[in-house]
Write the structure tokens for this entry.
Amino acid sequence: MNTGIGGTPATGEWQIACRVEDLADGACAQFSLSDTPGFVLLHGDLACAYINRCPHLGIELNWMPNRFKEADGHFIQCATHGALFTPDRGDCIAGPCQGDALTALETRQQDGYIWVRFTPD
Ligand code: FES
């Protein structure tokens, strides 16, 4: 295991999250970063990845595999209490954790894959 304190992934190691084509048509993809669950989506051409942990209760956001968006597909939504997060920054704009944010991961695209790594502020 390569996990930091409190379930935060170790820093600095790039890891493949998914294929770029897995994110077609607004899809999201789950992955595990050093045993920490994460997910990634495309916002335009920008790959945005987050640790799969709602800032409200610290639990995973989704109930269904790879399902992280609300019905209109614009925002990330927590399945438990419905908090909404912006796809490009992970800012909570509505719900019990409004003003808080998801933990973002650094991303890059290379050779048809999305790579992610954890780099704390
Ligand atoms: S656990 Fe996500 S909004 Fe409550």
Notes: Residues 5-117 form a domain with the Rieske Iron-sulfur Protein fold (CATH 2.102.10.10). Residues 54, 56-57, 59, 78, 80-81, 83, 95-97 surround FE2/S2 (inorganic) cluster (CB under 6 Å).
